[in-house]
Amino acid sequence: AEMCRRLETEEEKVLPFYPSSLAEGEQRDARRVLEETPAEPLAWAMRDYVGLERFWQRFNKAKLEEQALERERAALSQRNRRLRELLRQYLAGISVSQEVLGEPNPL
User: Fold this and answer.
1) If you average pLDDT over residues 39-67, what whole number do you get?
2) Contact call for residues 93 and 106 (beta carbons, < 8 A)
3) Distances (CA, A) of 60 to 30, 41, 91, 99
4) Is 88 helix (H, G, I), strand (E, B) or coil?
5) pLDDT (tens digit, 9 = 90+) per residue, 59-91?
6) Quick check: 100 and 92 in contact, CB under 8 A?
7) In angstroms, rounded to a whole number, what is the distance separating the alpha carbons of residues 71 and 65?
8) Cα 60 to the chain's mean position, in Å?
9) Contacts of 38 (CB under 8 A, 6+ apart)
10) According to DSSP H, which parts of the chain are helical?
11) Considering only CA atoms, which of 72, 68, 55, 46 is closest in space to residue 17?
């Protein structure tokens, strides 16, 4: 935990908990379930890992940011291809060569 604390951003140090996306009733139900004594072996095992909840929150946030950046990269790549094609058409329209004269004029 101490090693992770050094790597936290200033915002994470000041506001360490992310706002919950659960409604008030759902939060009450979740708290009640956490306070109950687990009956299943898997539930007993999960109680040992409650301390990792903050880690998983940060991990999931990083994964979401990674996916958002990947989508943005794909959109920018698409835009770049479109702009390159428009530039190619423009340059073909203003230059004169045998190859260009044989193609239909885009302008």
Assistant:
1) 81
2) yes
3) 19, 26, 46, 54
4) helix
5) 888 899 999 999 999 999 999 999 999 999 898
6) yes
7) 10
8) 9
9) 44, 46, 47
10) 2-7, 10-14, 24-35, 41-47, 53-94, 98-102
11) 55
